[in-house]
């Protein structure tokens, strides 16, 4: 690659700021060994020696450019190369790893090298290198045989993809709507035997260097016409890659190994690319000469939500501000599109279905040339329920689906002689109902515990609209109560069971969901009823032990039980007020705070009889700090209070009592002149402020 004179003279040679080592597994060894980084300060000097490497990737910070050259083990230096910014080959925002402010250079195949040197042009603050180590060639790749018009493709197993380093399962789009063509911007000097190692090295760099889930491209083609499977997930499926930021979903990314800014792709690469694109677009019934509208998910050229019209075979530069796939290669694309359109005929393009079961359903498509065509509709059993035929280059037939069952799934096919059939489905068979996350809270209902305790909340999640029935079963399985029965939509559901009127005992709530075709799902969840324990008072308390005050807890027992009343800090018991067997009756337990520090606690009351343990809880706040009340204006009765409290005012000898619900400044309305004032505040814990007095 010839550099502009300015690039060859500007900048000074620098050492690498940081280096990274990526292990490129040889065939038969553990694939994808780990990534390690070693930082170095920037300073001038001699080149950086490194363990033998075969691929180099540079990351840098700053708006300038980075030039580099590499040295062979025999001491021969390469020409200076410009590090091509590869950050335009990116996943969509928020989907995979990101560079954190680093610009990502394209991976560059160096062959066997043992040193690197770089220059900077413009503002560059840091440079990081990733060396991929390993053999530059491996075992002969295994090609998948051609089937159903598919070209020979070297699968991931064939090029020994290091599957263990993949970061996440594949993601899928709704289909493939276009192909986007790239070059890898690497060296053109490689052999056919080296190509599998190059693909493997690119994957390791993309995953362990750039932090992506997998190799970014869906397919790769070398200059010898070898085609390689790219990102994992299935070559015939709409796998979302990381090759065209903003347009990854719904596109197939195909990269040709090498740089084609001034050189065209080889005739072998061109022929392979044509056969690959013809096959892959035909799988999705995309016309290679058509134009499609895609919505950008966001990149520097097209903001999120922008509708962009693209060729069905587009170049990366059509979607992003980049020179990829090189100027000369870009000029070859019109001829490539035309060749793809002539390959593998006849074809069916743009199949579409409109309408719905219960009414007319229209089938349309285009044929690459006039031919006899057939539309066939089958039910779930495979029986043909409707057929339409015609002749010409346009398919247009309407099925009267008024008698079709809306609860059934139908498949359709548009066929023409020697063309790949277009297929799809209409409607759907109802999925079996599924009850998820079924819970009852609390697990023990206390009918004598007052309204808050004499109820239980039943929650669950439903996957399909169904009739849902909830019943209560006793220990023998007999139904003792029905809670509800009715139609419920998919999604989270809840039911509040109140005024429980069942004898003490252990029960199960049976939840049954039945869909429109009679399929059922059942879930059983335990619940208990216990009348032993009455309500705990106070349920919420703020208490100050100052001055010998005591807090009086109260509860009732309706049967003999072993009772515990404890104070907890978090989940840790810090005080036990009662631990004894008690007879039925009203109970009162005084407590002086037990020397506990101010703070928030919980009070737990449990009663255990021969059947079960019933439990209630309350909240407690210990507070020994009195409120602070300040008089700001006697004339206007304006005050400042440190916390919510009950306020007592004696104005001109007349008492007034107010509740102040918020801390801060407040004013009390009063008619006439304030001659004398006495005021104090008492907080919820019973702490009393000092008395304020005023006189005019």
- Integer average pLDDT: 85
The low-confidence parts are 1-45
* Count of helical regions: 4
Q: Quaternary status of these chains?
A: single chain
Note the main sheet.
Answer: 9 strands, mixed
What shape does the CA trace take?
Answer: extended
Q: Proportion of β residues?
A: 35-45%
Tell me the radius of gyration: 38 Å
Rounded to the nearest angstrom, the distance between the terminal CA atoms is 96 Å
Helix amount: under 10%
Number of distinct beta strands: 45
Question: From the helix content, strand content and strand pairing, which structural class follows?
Answer: mainly beta
Distinctive features:
mainly beta; extended; single chain; five-stranded mixed β-sheet; 696 residues; 8% helix; nine-stranded mixed β-sheet
Describe this structure in words.
8% of the residues lie in helices and 44% in strands. The chain is mainly beta and 696 residues long. The radius of gyration is 38 Å and the shape is extended. Strands 1, 2, 3, 4, 5, 6, 7, 8 and 9 form a nine-stranded mixed sheet that branches.
Short description:
Helix content is 8%, strand content 44%.
Task: Produce the secondary structure layout.
Layout: H1 5-9, E1 13-14, E2 18-23, E3 35-39, E4 48-61, E5 65-71, E6 81-82, E7 103-104, E8 108-121, E9 126-133, E10 143-144, E11 153-154, E12 178-183, H2 195-209, E13 219-221, E14 227-229, E15 251-256, H3 267-283, E16 291-295, E17 307-311, E18 313-315, H4 327-342, E19 348-355, E20 360-378, E21 384-400, E22 410-415, E23 422-426, E24 435-441, E25 444-445, E26 455-462, E27 466-473, E28 479-488, E29 491-498, E30 505-514, E31 520-529, E32 540-543, E33 551-557, E34 561-569, E35 572-582, E36 585-591, E37 599-608, E38 613-622, E39 629-633, E40 638-641, E41 645-651, E42 654-660, E43 664-667, E44 676-682, E45 692-695
Parallel strand pairs: 2-9, 12-15, 12-18, 13-15, 25-31, 32-38
Antiparallel strand pairs: 1-8, 2-3, 4-7, 4-8, 4-9, 5-6, 5-8, 10-11, 13-14, 16-17, 19-20, 20-21, 20-22, 22-23, 24-26, 26-29, 27-28, 27-30, 30-31, 33-36, 34-35, 34-37, 37-38, 39-40, 40-43, 41-42, 41-44, 44-45
